Amino acid sequence: MTSCSPRSGGGRGVTLTMLLRDGIIDSGSGSMSVNYLGQKFIGDLLQDGSIQLQTTKEVFSSPSAWAIHCKKMVNPTKRSGCGWGSVRYKGRKLDTYKMMWFNKQKPSDSKEIRKPQHHVMKKAREKAEAKAKSDPAGETEPSTSTSKDQSDCTHDVPIAASVMLEETKAPETTSLRRRPIKYTSLGQRTIEHDQNALVESLSFQTLGKLQPYSITVSSNCLFLMDLHAHLTSSEVVGYLAGTWEPLTHRLTIERAFPCRCRLGDKDNALIVEEEIRQNMDKAKLSLVGWYHSHPTSPAQPSLKDIDAQLDYQVKLNLTKYHPCVGIICSPFDSQNTQPDSSLVLFMALPPEMKTNSYGMPISLNYTVMQEPFLTQDLLNEIKWLCDFCFGAPDLTKFKETWRGNMANLDKLKLSLSNKLPSDQTDDRLINYVTQLINEADQGQ
Length: 444
Hints:
About 35% of the residues lie in helices and about 20% in strands. The chain has helices at about 15-20, 65-75, 85, 95-105, 110-115, 115-135, 160-165, 220-230, 265-285, 305-315, 375-390, 410-415, 430-444, and strands spanning about 30-35, 40-45, 50-55, 60, 85-90, 90-95, 200-205, 215-220, 235-245, 250-260, 285-295, 325-330, 340-350, 360-365, 365-370, 400-405, 405. A 9-stranded mixed sheet has the order 7-14-13-12-11-9-10-8-15. A 6-stranded antiparallel sheet has the order 4-3-2-1-5-6. Strands 16-17 form a two-stranded antiparallel sheet. A hairpin with a 4-residue loop joins strand 9 (about 235-245) and strand 10 (about 250-260). The longest helix is centred in the first third of the chain and has 18 residues, at about 115-135. The model is unreliable at about 1-10, about 105-130 and about 130-175 (pLDDT under 50).
C-alpha cells in the first residue's frame, strides 16, 4: 500500500480523527465517496482517520488529498479542490459533520440541544435589535430586490425542526382518520382538546378580506412533496424555499427540501438541518415555509399544526415582514376518491381578543408554475429520498390495492403525472420513479 504525503485536514483545523474521536462519525467500509464528472469513487474510513481508496488500496491522510487524487484520475489538469465540500460520508457532505462538531463545542443548555432553533432565533433577535438601534426611526428605504438578493436571516431559521424533533408527535394511525371540525366550535383552549384534532380551514373570501399576497408554486416542488408523502405510511416533514418580492407582494415557492430524518432522531436532525441550510444558501433561496403529510387524513391542519404555524410565522418576521406558508399533503385521504393527492396551503391568524383561544387556520389560493425542464436538483432529491425511505418498516406497500383494481403504485403515478415539467410528457421521470420503487420491492 502506498500512502500520500500528509496534508491539512481542512475546515479550520478540524480533522477526520477529531470527528471520529468525538463520535460525530464512525469508521467503516465504503462510507466515503466522491462524485466527479459522472464518476463515483468509494473509500473506506479507517480508524486513524485516513481514507483508503477501494480500487487501488491507496491510503490518504485527508479528505482534500483523496478528493484531488480522484478528480485527477478523471481530469488530469485538476489541481485543487475543497475536500470537505467534495467528499461525502454516508451520502452527506463532510461539511455538515464539521458543522456538527463545531456546534458540539459551543456551550448550550439541554433545551437548546433539544430545540436547536433557539440558538438561531437568539441570533436573529440580536440582529433585529442591532438593526433597530442603528435605525431607530425605522426610515430605511424599502428594498426593490427579491429575496434572492436579500442578506436577511430567513433562510437560517430551522422552522421544521420542532416538528421533526418532537417525539410526542407520533406517526398518523387509523384512529386519526376523521372529519375536520369547525373552527367556530373550538371556543377556549381546554386540556380536553385533542391536539391531533383536525380543523377546517377558512378562507379570506369568507372573512370578506383579500389574500394579502399572491403565491406561485413550482411544479417540481409539488412533485417532490407528493412523492415524499407517498413513500411512507408515517408523517413526513420538509422545508419550503423560494423568493419574496415585497413591492409586488408575491411569494414564489421554488423548491422543497425533504427532511431525510426519522421523527425523534434528534442527533441526525441537526445534520439534516445544516445540510438543507447550506443547500438553500447555495441556491440563493430563502426559507418561506414548511410542509408535512397527513397520510390517510384530510389535508387540514390539526390544533398542533395551527400552533406550530403561528410560531413559525413569528420567527420569520423577527427582522422584517416575510410570509411563512404551511403545506399539508394527504396522499391516501380516505375521503378523497381521486388519485391526485389532497393538498392545502395555509397560514394562521392569531386570536384577536380571546388570548386563550386557538389561531384561525386560513387556506391560501395559489397558482402552479409548470417548470420547463427536469432539473438536476430534483433528480438528485428523488434519488436521495428513495434511498432514505426504502427499507424502512413503514414503507408504503405499493403493490397493495388502493381502490378498485388500482394499486398504490398506479395511484402514485397518476398523482405525479399532474406535476411533471414540460419536457417530461413522455413519462420518463415517472418511469424512473417506478423503476426505483420496483428495485426496492425486489430487494426486500
